[in-house]
Amino acid sequence: MKTEGRRKRILVITQYFHPELFRINDICQEWVKRGYRVTVVTGIPNYPQGEFYEGYDYKHKRNEIWNGVEIIRLPIKPRKTGAINLSINYLSYVFEGWKWVRKTKLEADSVFIYEVSPMTQALVGVWYAQKHHVKCNLYVTDLWPENVAAVLRTHNKLFLGLIGKMVDYIYKRCNHILTSSQSFIGKIEARGVNKEKLMYWPQYAEEFYTRAVRKKQLEIPDDGVVNFTFAGNIGSAQGLDVLVRAAQMLKKEEISVRFNLIGNGRYEGELKRHIEQADVADYFNFITRKPAEEIPFYLAWSDAALIILSKSEVYAMTIPAKTQSCLACGMPVLVSADGEVQDIIKEADCGFCSGAGDAKGLVCNMKQFISLSDKERERLSINASAYYKANFDKKNLLDRMEAYI
Q1: Which of 69, 200, 227, 262 is close enough to 302 for a disulfide, judged by CB 3.0 to 4.6 Å?
Q2: In this prediction, what percent of the chain has a pLDDT beyond 70?
Q3: pTM, whole model, 2 decimals?
Q4: First to last CA, the chain
């Protein structure tokens, strides 16, 4: 990728970037270490809580340098709450990005689009690449329009058809398309995309995700109760209602466990209402969003990690980024999700799996885990770490990406 005589510049298009917690933060830092000049066009940070982070607004920190990465922040609208505000947030990035592409004098050698929802953000990268005649590379972690149909629970053919046309427009104008899941390959190819443009590139975990030792006491009590921990966004896609039903079943059997939920999100308030209505509040421990670097220490106070997704065809094809984080930390894992993430945990032999929304299956797996000896739990931990090193090594993955794009 490098050109002789000067550093090659990679233009990264991503609606979310530091201090928001996404893996593109680490990828950009690694490119800087490898000698590239990296410029990120992103928004004003407001994910997942929906309001601008402290110190960021339309006047402050619109341009900054972070660990060698040049950041340009577009004046987007915050997510706030509700579908209308979220739609305005998505469209504002596209509109402000279109204006930026028209006026910018920045010269990049290639474009890299980090696509977590929304796919609309990719338009900004496509427009820049077309205008400047440079290669456009797309990394797909959320599959559209399938993801939209799942989140909105809609089958409106006209609406989804329009989104599909946008997606096809983007795919057609990208030189390379990388996917975070094997299952995405066939779906994208079925849209008429040449298979030679496609490559499976799983996410890795940042280097601070490692098996940590217990240091100071954190917000996870050490009282003999088994701790199952979920860390990440609390949204409708995560399907955390299954924990409410699981807690009700466990309570009837007088089995005490604790579900530690680390993070925030648009569904948090509704989830707490369901917990109160079900009278299982003593099974839940809500911990506000933490810096990613601290998560390994919270997992160290936990007995097992939880990976949970709602039931849908597209989520069954999705590998949540927390999968790699949990494996890298050597955590036994309980999965309540369908599809590819189950395949990974079963192949790694590091936990137990039940289907999305299957509270009964999840409870059976929890009881099975509780019954394990310390030696058996340690075996799961060792297997998790070993599988991560064999399949998601950071250097190997970055070398592959660099060679491909």
Answers
A1: 227
A2: 99
A3: 0.84
A4: 7
Instruction: Write the CB contacts of 12 (distance below 8 Å, at least 6 apart in sequence).
Output: 24, 28, 38, 39, 40, 41, 111, 112, 113, 114
Helix (H) or strand (E) holding 353: strand 351-354
Q: What whole-number distance in Å separates Cα of residue 89 and Cα of residue 227?
A: 36
Q: Over 90: is that where the pLDDT of 28 sits? A: yes
Other CB atoms within 10 Å distance of the CB of residue 367? 15
Distance of alpha carbon 41 from alpha carbon 60, whole angstroms: 16
Q: By C-alpha distance, which of 66, 24, 67, 15 is closest to 45?
A: 15
**pLDDT attached to residue 255:** 96
Pairing assessment for the beta strands 304-308 and 176-179 based on DSSP bridges:
unpaired
For helices 83-103 and 122-132, the axis angle rounded to 10 degrees is: 10
Mean pLDDT of the chain: 94
Helix orientation angle between 157-172 and 122-132, rounded to the nearest 10 degrees: 40
Closest CA to 101 of 13, 9, 8: 13
Check residue 4 and give its pLDDT. 45
Secondary structure element (H or E) that encloses residue 9, with its range: strand 9-13
Nearest to residue 313, comparing CAs of 160, 86, 119, 148? 148
Instruction: Tell me which residue has tokens 């597209």.
Output: 314
CB 329 within 8 A of CB 299: yes
CB half-sphere exposure, 71, CA atoms < 13 A: 28
Spatial distance between the Cα atoms of 137 and 298, rounded to a whole number of angstroms: 35
Local confidence band at 3 (pLDDT 50, 70, 90 cut-offs): very low
Dihedral class, residue 235 (left if φ above 0, else alpha if ψ from -120 to 50, else beta) = beta
Separation of alpha carbons 331 and 367, rounded Å: 17
User: Which residue type is seen at 9?
Assistant: R
State what percent of residues in the chain have pLDDT above 90.
83
Exposure string over 96-121, b if 16+ CB within 10 A, otherwise e:
bbeebbeebeeebbbbbbbbbbbbbb
Question: In this structure, are strands 37-43 and 351-354 parallel, antiparallel, or unpaired?
Answer: unpaired
